[in-house]
Amino acid sequence: MEIRWNEIESKWRKRWNDSKDFETDPSEKEKKFITVAYPYPNSPQHIGHGRTYTLADVHARFYRMKGFNVLFPMAFHYTGTPILGMAKRVEANDKEIIENLKNLYGVPEESIKTFVEPVKIADYFHKEIKTGMIEMGYSIDWRREFTTIDPVYSKFIEWQIKTLREKKLIIQGSHPVGWCPKDQNPVSQHDTLGDVEPDFTEYILIKFKYEDYIIPTATLRPETIFGVVNLWVNPEIIYKKITVGNEKWIVSKECAYKLEFLDKKITYDGEIKGVELIGKSVTVSHRNDSILMLPASFVESGTGTGMVMSVPAHAPFDYQALEDLKKSKIEPELALKVAKITPISIIQTEGFGENPAKETVEKFGVVNQSDPKLEDATKEVYGKEFYGGKLKQNTEQFAGIKVAYAKDTIKEWLIKNKHADILLELTNTPVRCRCGAECVVKVLNNQWFLNYGDKDWKELATKCFDVMNILPQEIRAEFNYVIGWLRERACARQHGLGTKLPWDKDWIVESLSDSVIYMAYYIISKFVNDGTLKAEKLSPEFFDYIFLGKGDANKVSSITELTVDVINQIKKEFDYFYPVDSRHSGRDLVPNHLTFFVLNHVAIFPENNWPKEIVVNGSVLMNGSKMSKSMGNIIPLRKAIQDYGADPIRLAIIISAELLQDADFNMESVSGIQNKLESLYNECSRLKAEKINNLEAEDKWILSKTQSMISQVTNSIEKMRLREALHDILFSFESELNWYTKRANAKNRTNISGILHQINSVRVAMLSPFAPHISEEMWEKLGHSDLASTSQWPKYSEESINASAIQSEELLKLLIDDISNILKVTKITPKKITIYTADSFKSRVYHSILEKVTSGQTNMGIVMKELISNPETSDVKKIPDFVQKTIKDILSEPSEIRQMKLESKEFDEKKFLANELTDIGKKEFGVDIDVFSESDENIYDPKSKARHARPFKPAILIE
Q1: For the chain, does the N or the C end have fewer beta carbons within 10 angstroms?
Q2: What is the pLDDT, as a whole number, of residue 630?
């Protein structure tokens, strides 16, 4: 029967809404507070967004079924500049954005006209996203919804910012920030196209003197100043002559532009062609020595200053460019000078000789300075020298210092002696603001910063990360890395929607800074939405009391005009739900939001309210490619739900990858999942709950396998390995069920409906967090009167696992497979099949070996010695190859199978096969099968096969 997805989904959404199961208040139960990064409503959500929210919803639904009181709320992030930039583009009638709104997002013309007002954009997409979340079946408590421009929320942010300032964690000063020159605003990830966090690098500008000018070159390795032998200039570039403060510089035009933003006074004085500088000399400031400026094509005007210093002993690019130049046709006088240039070795590194650059260039087989292999050669030299190199005697007072520690010492010395300056440059260029302008690094004066560089603050955050659960574990190192490099970060800007700085109303709190502790606001938003809390009555004392337990209720009551009872009710609710038990977000937010979330919590809240867990997921690809408007592969979530149903979309997102991997979504997998769910639905429609009487071997086996599945799935979900869990429920277990029905059919059984009903009830319950709508429908078809989503998560019971049943059934399956393989290879049409099981002596020896191997002894000689010294097994000396093969058999099996065999010593292999193999054997191969033990008196063994039998490895004769 084909499923009408949209009908079923709206039926169950109505039931959930009517029963208010997801509206969560404090209770006697243990709580779980699960939150996920709230969306920014400047476009509808697409399938990519659906991943993070679906994973969080599965987590919430799972814990609810485990008996926890789960709070899973949602809000909308209006603050920041993206909506502002979008409104400006709509106002300017920007063709691209109008087309996207109309064709990609399906926004009606009359709505687009209102989009010149930023809040109208946010309100429109807020409604759109919320509807999509409801259609996806997210189990959200919508009573707690808010937006970040709500008046009470602004009061909350004012309190947060004031608290941080009182702790001296907000400072004012001059610091570099990513900057949009068009909007005149600092930018962070949320303000850029493609959500790129502007990342910048500090270059040291080494100053060389040329006539009246300074020629600065940018480097990340100031120690190499001692090995410089020439400068590289690109003859094709036209350089700018500029005045910087009281010095005259020559730099590329891109560099001059960047310098304008770095708090330097710049005037433009003229131009000079690169070719005019070739062959001219410059003075190396610190050693009063002359070197030449020489031509090199690898020098780029957009990087650094457009001039590069050459250190051919340690920089493969420089070595190769010098070699190329020596072979090229240049004027004879210059050629003579170039021929005399010899590299200066300044770093001693184990594994390298006098000229590491030359050695590595030769090792990689580099052909010329355009060879891409130069990148690899450079990485190798720089890496080895950075971690293992020491400066040589010719580096004067710095001799003996490790390269890893030399940078800062030499930088300070150069700047102090006025031999150097600083250039800040975006590392991940080009970064574009949402308005379209290319961003730069700007040094801002009198800007407000969160002092994330503060050592004590970092230590506190590290303490929190150390005790926190981070899923998956391998992302932990990324958080440690972020804490390491974090420095001051602008927390205010002068444009955009948001809360004004309480002490400086010209500034608005920046959008990443107002979204770090908002999880606490979810607890009080319920009281805002029901009219209990009003912005004009709230003061810092209220928030201090509710969130930090400071002050007393009577004083708060007199300030806010709320009753003491109401204040204490709110406080009690906060104390019940906080801290956050699990925070879900995408990997792209590790370097900012997720780390700031921890930093701000440890700064403001007492330790018992620090977050407990962070769950990080990768992004979603569409047919192998990143989703982007330009690729035309963005599918709005609501459109996908309409076309395919919410549950198939949820499952296709989850099953395509584990947590940190990028999920590769494609429509074929959606249809495959639809078919899978349809067949399970049809199965559930047929089954009835019936009394289960005497259990046969296959019944005991399938019920044991069901228990194993419950254990595996539960463990997988707890580790957020949702792909693994879903695969077990939907696919892996299917092969067990197929075997079970094959066994039952071979015996012509008609009494298995009750067992299948019990098993599929377990499967459907476990499927419920993943595919909530169709699971409710299946649950109803199975005849359950409650809701699947509020039923109890299936309990694993170790007692219900029958080790003997599992191992005997595995033996049967392997035997059937072995017979099939022999028939396939020999191409025999069988007339008779005979099976021989090992005798009781071999079984005794087998169990003795199994005990030894399980306790760690796998040495054949020692095992043999111990067996011979035991009177019960001493005869084993007659069959030494049996011992060898048995050790091999046991080692090839998983440890849980070994454990089961240990537990079921009394297993009678012959009796089991004689009872169970005949029916299925006849059905599979169309002939009778006889079973003998090798020690039977009346054995039929014309080919002497029986002696080859080993425990769990019967010998087979096919005639």
Answers
A1: N
A2: 53
List the structure tokens of 785. 């009167």
Q: Measured at the alpha carbon of residue 635, what is the angle toward residues 632 and 638, in degrees to the nearest 5?
A: 155
Q: How far apart are CA 886 and CA 62, in angstroms?
A: 43
Span 814-833, average pLDDT = 88
DSSP secondary structure of 147-160: BTTSHHHHHHHHHH
Is residue 719 classed as helix, strand or coil in its secondary structure?
coil
HSE-up (13 A, CA, CB side) for residue 296: 27
Mean pLDDT of 457-473: 95
Q: Which amino acid is present at 780? A: E
Q: What is the pLDDT of residues 15-32, one digit of tens each?
A: 999 999 999 999 999 999
- 949, pLDDT greater than 90: no
Distance, CA of 638 to CA of 651 (rounded, Å): 16
For 350-364, letters b (16+ CB in 10 Å) and e give eebeebbbbbbbeeb
Q: Please say whether the beta carbons of 535 and 154 come within 8 A.
A: yes
Maximum CA extent, the chain: 113
| Contact indicator for 821, 955 with CB cutoff of 8 Å | no
Residue in 739, 738, 779, 736 with CA at minimum distance from that of residue 760: 779
Tokens of 26: 């404090």
d(CA 395, CA 496): 51
> What does the pLDDT look like over 130-184, one tens digit per residue?
999 999 999 999 999 999 999 999 999 999 999 999 999 999 888 788 889 988 8
Q: Which amino acid is at 185?
A: N
Rg of the Cα atoms in the chain: 36
The helix (run of H) or strand (run of E) holding residue 424 is: strand 420-426
**Cβ contact 184:84 at 8 Å:** no
Among 843, 848, 844, 840, residue whose Cα is nearest residue 935 = 840
Do 947 and 934 meet the contact criterion of CB atoms below 8 Å apart? Answer: yes
- Its sign, for the CA torsion 520, 523, 529, 530, is negative
**Amino acid identity at 570:** I
Query: Is 449 in contact with 488 (CB distance < 8 Å)?
Result: yes
Query: Would you state the torsion angle of the CA atoms of residues 159, 165, 167, 171, taken in this order, to the nearest 10 degrees?
Result: 160
- Which residue stretches of 92-150 are H helix? 95-99, 109-114, 118-135
* Residue 302 · residue 254 · CB < 8 Å: yes
Helix intervals (H) in 468-607:
476-485, 519-529, 540-543, 553-560, 564-577, 595-604
Long-range contacts for 348-353 (Cβ within 8 Å, ≥24 apart)? 348/389, 348/390, 348/391, 348/392, 349/384, 349/385, 349/388, 349/389, 349/390, 350/388, 351/384, 351/388, 352/381, 352/384, 352/385
Q: β-strands 582-586, 281-284: how paired?
A: unpaired
How far is the C-alpha of 419 from the C-alpha of 414, rounded, in Å? 5
Q: Say if residues 598 and 464 touch (Cβ distance below 8 Å).
A: yes
What residues contact residue 261 under an 8 Å CB cut-off, 6+ apart? 179, 181, 440, 441, 442, 443
Residue 450 DSSP label: E
Burial 137-154 (b: 16+ CB within 10 A, else e): bbbbbebbbbbbbbebbb
Q: Could you tell me the two tokens for 292?
A: 């030449």
CB 247 within 8 A of CB 310: no
Q: Length of the chain, please?
A: 959
The Cα 517–Cα 510 span in angstroms is 14
Cα-Cα-Cα-Cα dihedral of 450, 451, 453, 455, to 10°? -130
Element (H, E) at 54: helix 47-65
